[in-house]
Specification:
The radius of gyration is 23 Å and the shape is elongated. 32% of the residues are buried. The termini are far apart. It has helices spanning 19-28, 77-81, 107-111, 133-137, 144-148, 161-171, 192-195; strands at residues 4-10, 49-57, 60-68, 87-89, 95-97, 118-120, 125-127, 154-159, 186-189, 196-207, 210-213, 218-223, 226-232, 238-245, 249-257, 260-269, 274-279. With 280 residues, it is an alpha+beta fold. The protein folds into 2 domains: 4-190, Alpha-Beta Plaits, CATH 3.30.70; 197-279, Immunoglobulin-like (Sandwich).
Length: 280
């Protein structure tokens, strides 16, 4: 069984430095790599694009950055949509758009459900991040985006499909839009910033006639009588529950002090995160 390339993106480690995107610009902008890609336009294209995922509202805001790129799918829609074998899947898992055979095939831009194919108007060719295939073929051990990432948010792995399946299981990795069933080779750790919502809040209490932050209050989250998670408010009276499914319906918050229930709050989770202001 041959080894194939995969990329693991740890969202928690991405700091939005854009080194990965700049490395792509430096490698491809106005520079041709025969057999691999025509020159990338100097402006407009984002072969590696960093999405900003913002959840919540003041004073509890969670911001994450999610690098996205061609997923090098095993069941790639662009391969099926291409004419004249203009897009092919290599034995090492990398999808390559042939810059000559793909010339004029603008429909390939729409064939990608991830929006990872860009149209080069000057060269009249669709383009994508090709996993730096030309560098790997020259002996590089990893693509440039991995090489320049200062936090280790990007990690390339060349292993068998069986080994990768185990890594996915062990590290609880996810892919973008799994419902598409395209079998991507770009995997994500801590993707909840894009796929899940928060239930968070601040607690206040009145003490000696003054309104203060309610610290050290035990907060439990349940749904239909079953416990979901527990937390304790910090010195600012804040609590946060992450990883809640979107549109998952009714939950109950139980606010407790000294093992005595102070208040039960009903919340309804829809498509957005909730930040509550509560008093006890």
């Amino acid at each position: 069984m041959s080894n194939k390339w995969n990329l693991i993106v740890d969202v928690d480690e991405c700091i939005n430095c854009y080194n990965c995107a700049l490395a792509v610009q430096d490698e491809y902008a106005e520079m041709e790599h025969p057999g691999y890609t025509a020159p990338m336009p100097k402006h407009g294209h984002r072969w590696i694009n960093i999405l900003r995922a913002e959840r919540g509202k003041f004073p509890i805001v969670d911001v994450s950055f999610v690098p996205t790129m061609c997923n090098h799918c095993d069941d790639a829609p662009c391969v099926e949509a291409a004419e004249n074998n203009a897009v092919h899947k290599r034995s090492d898992g990398i999808v390559v758009i042939d810059p000559k055979a793909a010339k004029g095939q603008k429909h390939l831009v729409d064939a990608c459900p991830y929006g990872a194919i860009w149209w080069n108007e000057i060269e009249e060719v669709p383009q994508h991040w090709n996993f730096d295939a030309h560098l790997l073929d020259e002996g590089w051990k990893e693509p440039r985006c991995v090489n320049v990432c200062p936090t280790g948010a990007l990690k390339s792995v060349k292993v068998s499909d069986l080994e990768m399946s185990q890594i996915v299981k062990d590290e609880e990795l996810e892919t973008l839009k799994p419902e598409l069933e395209t079998q991507p080779r770009i995997y994500y750790k801590s993707l909840k910033s894009l796929t899940k919502v928060l239930i968070a809040g601040t607690l206040e209490k009145v003490s000696n006639g003054r309104t203060e932050c309610a610290a050290d209050i035990h907060v439990s989250l349940s749904q239909s009588g079953s416990p979901v998670a527990e937390s304790v408010t910090d010195e600012f009276g804040e609590f946060k529950f992450d990883g809640i499914d979107r549109n998952s319906g009714a939950y109950q918050l139980n606010l407790m002090c000294n093992d005595i229930s102070q208040k039960i709050v009903d919340v309804d989770v829809k498509n957005e995160s909730l930040v509550l202001e509560l008093d006890i």
